[in-house]
Amino acid sequence: MSRNLSFSIPFASGWLFGLVTVVIWAFWIVTTRQAVTIDLPAAWIGIFRFALPAVVLFPFWWRHGLLPKGVDRRLVALMVAGAGAPFFLTVATGMHGTPAGESGILLGGSMPLFVALLSAVVLGERFSASRLTSFAFIVAAAVAIGGDALLSGDLVSRLMVFAGAALWSLFTLAFKRSGLSALAAAGIVAAWSTIMLVPLAALEGFEPVFAAGPFVVAGQIFSQGILSGVVALACYGAAVARLGASRAAVLSALPPALAALIAIPVLGEMPTPVAFVGIVLAALGVGLASGAVTLRIPHRPAADRCPAR
Question: Which of 167, 142, 172 is closest to 243 using CA atoms?
């Protein structure tokens, strides 16, 4: 009993950390889209995203250093590229021409597939029938929620959002192999990203920030810096450490579905029947990947099988 409990508590806490991440990601998609549509430069949004976490998490990354001893520098580079400034600039630029709903679909639907592919190729991970079926459900959910929107509009912007999902998958696997704690990894990513973004923000000047107004800036600091920059990244890192890279990445399929549900009371936007199907498929996909839902394939006894002729 105690042995099962010791295994189940970390596993359950991993999903709890993951669900907190999902809620923040759904909120982040909306606030980032809002910022880029009022022409706030992506570099400044990135400063709001990473500078505060770099300060708050200073004790964690300072203890290890920006290039932690015993950690392959290539893993550090992949973490920074996958969850830091390169990831953020790629996605934020893509969001300028991609609506929030579509951005969520492209990010959430493709992240688990990229991570699964890399896990299989790099780590030699093998997937059960339930996990493979969960990936199929997630792809179907992305198509159902997105509908025809994925085939229209600014293709380049949508490809940039899609590329952001590939970058995030690199962070997921690199963090898992680094052996760093979630807060240390988040701090290192934030510190390096701030260093990279300061010159770009300086080129933009302060005029766009003043033009946006204090309310918008304060909202971005809270959403980008506190929620996404500290809470979500730390929770996602904790989920990866407890659940594994490919299983934790499946959680990224939930923000588009969650955003669609939140839009009903908040915006009065009722999803289409096909979108509702997509929400159900996304929930089933996450359920299969987590083990909450199991896929049982019946096996016929050997005696009941037809003899070979």
Answer: 172
Contact 44, 209 (CB under 8 A): yes
How far apart CA 100 and CA 177 sit, in angstroms, is 32
Both structure tokens of 291: 């083990």
In angstroms, the Cα distances linking 2 to 5, 6, 7, 247, 290 are 5, 6, 9, 25, 22
Rounded to whole angstroms, how far apart are CA atoms 148 and 180? 42
pLDDT digits over 161-202, tens only? 888 888 988 888 888 889 888 889 989 999 999 999 999 999
| Confidence (pTM) | 0.73
- 234: tokens are 């730390």
Residue 93 tokens, joined: 């630029």
Q: Are 142 and 253 in contact (CB under 8 A)?
A: yes
Distances (CA, A) of 230 to 173, 188, 234, 261: 19, 12, 6, 25
How far apart (Å, rounded) are the C-alpha atoms in residues 304 and 163? 50
- Cβ atoms of residues 243 and 252 within 8 Å: no
User: Which SS3 state, helix, strand or coil, does residue 41 take?
Assistant: coil
CA 174/CA 241 separation, integer angstroms:
12
Compute, in degrees rounded to 10, the torsion defined by CA atoms 258, 87, 246, 61.
Answer: -110
pLDDT in tens, 122-133: 766 776 776 777
